[in-house]
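Example record

The entry below shows one chain as it appears in the dataset: sequence first, then structure tokens.
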Amino acid sequence: MAVHFIEEDKSPGKINRGNVKKWLEGVVLTEGKEVGVTNVIFCSDAYLVKINKEFLKRDYFTDVITFDYSDGATISGDIIISVDRTEENAREMAISGVDELRRVMVHGILHLIGYNDDTIENKAKMTSREDLYLGQWPG
């Protein structure tokens, strides 16, 4: 998987990018898909709200937006993550910021694979997959 980590206007802090890359690749392969190019873009709330407004016509904060460029079974796309949101989510859930970053990264990958969270049933299925893969984190 050609995972590229990009810091737009915010740093995610210390994450082991090599381990994250291998883990996300494993998720894609386990789901029976092929590995393509994925950009994981870290940014601020302000940056992500701007993207949300411009491309999705939504005016609110979110932790992650995924743009899917997949072609058939080859998974590719942009996963844009608000570090501000993940830090706040982590505080609210009393977990580490790194754990929350991993959750939103795998959430984005699952969107590229084809999972959705648009209904209660789909959200439950997606959350179950997130939990499965978070449990397989090598660290």
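Notes for this example: The helical segments are 17-30, 45-56, 83-93, 97-113, 120-134. Strands lie at 2-7, 34-43, 64-68, 74-82.
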